[in-house]
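Reply to dn_fold:

You asked what the input looked like. This is it:
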Amino acid sequence: MRTDSSPGTLPAREHLPAAPAGTPVLDVVIPVYNEEKDLQPCVRRLHEHLDRTFPYAFRITIADNASTDTTPQVAGRLAAEIPGVTVCRLEQKGRGRALRAVWSASDAPVLAYMDVDLSTDLNALLPLVAPLISGHSDLAIGSRLARTSRVVRGPKREFISRAYNLILRGSLQARFSDAQCGFKAIRRDVAQVLLPLVEDTGWFFDTEVLVLAERAGLRIHEVPVDWVDDPDSTVHIVKTATDDLKGVWRVGRALATGSLPLDRLARPFGDDPRDRDIKDVPAGLARQLVGFCVVGALSTLFYLLLYGGFRVFTGSQAANALALLVSAVANTAANRRLTFGVRGSGGAVRHQAQGLVVFGIGLVLTSGSLAALNAASSEPQHSTELAVLIAANLAATVLRFLLFRAWVFPDRREDDSPAAPLYGSTAVGSTAVGSTAVGTTPYGSTPYGSTPYGTAQFRAGEAADTTWWEATLHLQPVRPHDSDARDF
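and this is what came back:
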């Protein structure tokens, strides 16, 4: 995974403008694998519901994950018969791979997906996407575990679902309530920046997207849903659970090592006065002050413990120097990561070297204070030494913050030069999928075609309109795994 310490932001959320006739606001993806029996009633029911209740233009995209039965033929007939229904054919399995391919190529500003069994009541669809259309939220999920949700399913699946979400809360500090419900939506501008950071191509894809979005500070809206379990589900529970646990370990390790540039996903609310620029106040100053104070308090406690330990074996000056040196290294590392949001190992040595210079200044202040105390009293009490050191450290802390902000970790946002575009000039998923799709043209402005099944051919994951690459923050690619043995 790429490490990047340079900051960046998504554009402020805004209410989506009214789209011209025929331009879809919502693109609902239905990933399928060998669903020849359930696909037709699902699509017809979903289309009828959207046509009757959804106030914006919409599209339904069937993402066929290498089906070996007659699912492609059923999907093709549906695309030919029902306006606004398209098909994307992939030659590799994996729900995450299907969503990545279609979402990366879609021109709709709101992207959603649902399972083909339609276990979730469709009345929750409009409440799901409304906060994304209005600009209130970045992602939205249906939750079967909310207090007002009404769920019908067996005790085995209930136990597995709740246990999995407890694992996410305990290991990844996830605050969303339901990671596995097949009923989610995301704004397109968020997906364009977030998807390149997601590695999983199977069932853990949902969880990884949500964890990264939450850690980046994006807003996730939850909708209580009515959900009835499908007794004929073909999900391999044991294998899926094992792969999900592996994904939890991988993501947790990446978050712990700082190898994900989540600081680049910061998003201003735009409609919140608290986030507007305040004259003569540097951006991020309040947050940095809070973080620095927390780190400083912990560092001071750590320093005092070290000083007390070293003082048993050596004099006050040597104990102070050793304690300050060790705590300074820890303080620089903590402020680098927590206060100023610098992730990864890039520039870490330089930052520590500069931190040692700041440490030297602090050493002069505290050592000078001890020298002044010893000059005033030949045998100062230990409590007096500690009081003097605390006062001196407070003064050194203020100076340390100013030097950290202005010299060690300056805000270089305006000096950043654009990096290479994401994945070069190829859309996400086009090389990994490498397959022919049956559907509309690449979600561009070309109308529906007239090839077999009344549709046109395009490469899955390939986008005709590449202008969004220029507006997207430039990140280096994170290649998804090329194969995924998980079945739908």
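Residues 1-8, 270-276, 413-488 have pLDDT under 50 and may be disordered.
Hope that clears it up.
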